[in-house]
Design brief:
By secondary structure, this protein is α/β, with parallel strands linked by helices. The chain has one domain: Alpha-Beta Barrel (TIM Barrel), CATH 3.20.20.140. About 50% of the residues lie in helices and about 15% in strands. Strand 4, helix 7 and strand 5 form a beta-alpha-beta unit. The chain binds zinc ion. The site of zinc ion (ZN) has 6 residues, from strand 1.
Length: about 350
């Protein structure tokens, strides 16, 4: 007998806005709004993707765009975030940092500021109704111009005391170098936001190093390919830079051939802090709990190690001190529960 993982308190630090949508909600909203969904999002869901080549990544982005197109009314946004928080609560997650690129929705909701305010209001209400702390990360798109990222960083900075806790950089690593976005990240860091760019997903260890050296990353989205360099892992461990590892996303996108190829164990044993994440459950068919189950079943994590993973997710989060303290105490309590034989 092992301790139930849905009762292990944890934080979820890598979840994208549209990608957090329940599959059933996508189907329902598409039907309601007359949006035609491709088979990959209906009977063949979750889709088989091979994003390691450009065409595969393009297909992933296209599915993502179709899914985003069903979010048309403020009501849909409130529903999306509330359901995401409900799912977090069910899986024992107590703190969620949801990542949004407001430019993807700005034309629908009246501009960048209005979109961000809508997301923040939805986060606040979801938090109140579920008890899960919900904070927002503003993410820029690395396939767009660095000046766009600066605009977003300034916007994020303005809301640093109203629910925005971090600044990210997403999309295809091969199409935009981290260092081109250093000015945006400087603005974000000056405002006290966490720097949480994606890196080391589609490209190797140097891409992770660039996030750390040029963007002063506090956490790296994915970062799994840091495992290719023992020296880099040592630096991440020394500087306590967290990798937001999303194993089932790596498998879903073909970044890893199978779950056993995701180097979670190697990173953990090297002392690199880890926050497990789901990335886009809507496209990969798995939420946060499934990643912890994988850590137990495939990577052989003991309950003590799983508790340590959960602690690392809390310590790497932007949760306020009293919240962290409470959750960390509850993790200890989980581990102290005797296991029935
Ligand atoms: Zn991501």
């Amino acid at each position: 007998m092992r301790r139930p993982l849905d009762k292990l308190p944890k934080a979820h630090l890598h979840l994208h806005f549209t990608g957090s949508m329940r599959h059933s909600t996508l189907i329902e909203l598409a039907l309601e709004q007359g949006v035609h969904l491709p088979d990959a999002l209906v009977q063949d869901w979750p889709p088989q993707l091979h994003a390691t080549d450009e065409r595969g990544w393009f297909r992933f982005q296209r599915l993502y765009d179709i899914a985003r197109s069903v979010l048309r009314r403020p009501f849909d946004v409130y529903r999306l975030v509330r359901e995401a928080a409900e799912d977090e609560a069910r899986e024992g997650s107590r703190w969620l940092e949801i990542q949004v690129d407001p430019s993807g929705y700005a034309s629908r909701f009246g501009g960048l500021t209005e979109t961000l305010e809508l997301a923040l209001d939805a986060a606040r209400l979801a938090s109140e109704s579920t008890g899960v702390g919900v904070a927002v990360i503003v993410a820029a798109n690395r396939t767009r111009h660095p000046l766009d990222a600066r605009t977003l960083a300034r916007l994020a900075a303005q809301y640093s005391d109203r629910g925005v806790v971090g600044f990210g950089l997403s999309n295809d690593e091969r199409r935009g170098r981290a260092r081109d976005f250093d000015a945006a990240f400087r603005i974000a860091k000056r405002a006290g936001l966490l720097a949480v760019p994606h890196g080391g997903e589609l490209l190797g260890a140097p891409s992770v190093a660039e996030c750390v050296d040029d963007l002063a990353a506090d956490r790296v989205g994915h970062g799994v390919r840091a495992a290719e360099s023992p020296r880099l892992m040592e630096r991440l461990a020394d500087r306590q830079v967290t990798c937001e590892v999303c194993p089932l996303s790596n498998v879903g996108l073909g970044v890893a051939r199978g779950p056993e190829d995701v180097p979670l164990r190697r990173l953990f044993d090297a002392g690199v802090p880890i926050a497990l994440g789901a990335d886009d459950p809507l496209l990969f068919g798995a939420r946060l709990l499934a990643q912890y189950e994988l850590a137990r079943d495939v990577y052989g994590f003991s309950d003590a190690e799983l508790a340590e993973l959960a602690r690392q997710s809390i310590r790497s989060s932007a949760a306020p001190e009293p919240v962290r303290k409470e959750i960390l105490a509850d993790i200890d309590a989980w581990l102290a529960t005797p296991v029935a034989n």
